[in-house]
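Subject: complex prediction, re-run

Hi both,

The earlier run crashed halfway through, so I resubmitted it with identical inputs.
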Amino acid sequence: MNIVVCVKQVPDTAVERKLKPADSTLDRASVDGLINEIDEYAIEEGLLIAEAQREAGHDAAVTIMTMGPEKAAESIRKALSMGADQAVHLLDDGLAGSDAMSTSYALAQVLKQIGFDLVICGSESTDARMGVMAPMLAERLGVPQVSLASKLEVDGSALRIRRFSEDGYFEVESTLPAVISVVEKINEPRYPSFKGIMAAKKKPVQTMSLADAGIDPALVGLGGSATEVVDFAQRPPRQSGTIVKDEGDGGVKVAEFLAAQKFV
Amino acid sequence: MTEILVLAEHTGDDVKKVTLELITLARRFGEPSLVWIGPGAEQGQARCAEYGAARIYVAADPAIDDYVVAPAAELLAQLVREKSPVLVLVAGTPQSKEVAGRLAVKIDSGVLTDAVDLQPGDDGPVAEQSIFGGATTVHSRVRHGTPIVAVRPNAVAPEPAPGAAELSPVSLAGEVTGARVTSRVVAERGERPDLTEASIVVSGGRGTGGAEGFGVIEQLADALGAAVGASRAVTDAGWYPHQFQVGQTGKTVSPQLYMAIGISGAIQHRAGMQTSKTIVAVNKDPEAPIFELADFGVVGDLFKVVPQLLDEISKRKQL
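This time it finished cleanly. Structure:
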């Protein structure tokens, strides 16, 4: 089984993130990049499925697919050290500033070339937070969308998931090939072992350019995107509120504030 | 008159509040037409009329609802081709954002998500988005195709306006395909309002100390008619169910009043609540980052402050 896990490198959420004034794109260079947190769950799920396939006597391989600048190689390395077998890095300056439409087009072109039985994504990234990549890929590839999974079972060519819903969950069935997205409840990602870190150094990483993947440069990057940022501004710090120390009347003070604001 | 398509969120017999918000927003741009997938349009019709929906396209075929996202997106794409709306609005919920994403690919249009406001501009609608946990405000627009915008619940207040809300049955051309829903389980929520839609949210954090301590959060929520939220520390520890997690990897809320009780306010949490209109915090640590956001804060023991607050609320209710 050919499992491809989509991994995005994102700026560390613990540090201040900024847009660049010149082109209103995310400043990825000046901050540490990490694997998008939910993508680690996607990697783990890919590894678990591959392990189960091998145990049942089938071939299985986990390929990490990343689109991003050179620096994203660090995230590929980490994913490989967790246990993935190989990686594809879509790396081209022409991709910088791509929106969701452009990114999904580019990734779908790569997926068509490398082939897949399962594509696994995290449900959303911590930088853009759109939550549209798995549905867009499913649409572009013409395969079922099996998204927002908090539980997943592969049984031959059938797939069953528990899908998050606004007020509970759905049980969902599908066939392979498919595009899956996972939520963080699905598993507990492993830490890379020392052996895994050493082994990762020898694992193959294929770098692809726009031309390699058959991507039309006019449909990606800042110029090829279907959306644009008009302007942006740092939000002014909230006007500092009133902070009081509880002197035995803290609850009364809160009630007075709520009453003044007409909440009670 | 220019037409705006609005994907309805409903409970099967009534529209959700976010849909009334979307209709209100749509009126800035033209005449709102709701797209109602599944049962219950007849029951929801009166309220949609009250808020200015001109018509409701009703796709009652249960098969559409039985497949994940794909048929809903196809139905919207079909309506976009037939009606040529100038804008498509959906609620900023995970599933409607998925519909928006697929629709964008189908009709080759740009999609914007998590808008907290939407205004007419010279080159089409301009969305305001609050990103990086609320630290940056962005204005963006779609420059290709029919703009598709997912709007965060509570972005605007629903305002009544008369509309005909005329029911117009539609059906999906072609076959429904994709992943099939085999069963649905609705989690017990009791009488409390929906977390993403509630006007008031009371959230508890690590400071509650455990599932038992979390009880005061529920009591306070009920006294205020609020929804209950929880920080990731709480849901990870199993003190409260996962679906109530507010934050980066949980739900994003934007209520009129957000009360953070025993929550330190890590970026993880702030990302899910920073656009709340009024924020009240109770925490024993004066250095807790949540106080930087709070309009009103009390440094103290939540197990002293909250019970006193509950007494005070019940006294005021009796006045």
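The helical segments of chain A are 37-55, 73-82, 100-114, 133-141, 194-200, 210-213, 221-224, 250-260.

- K.
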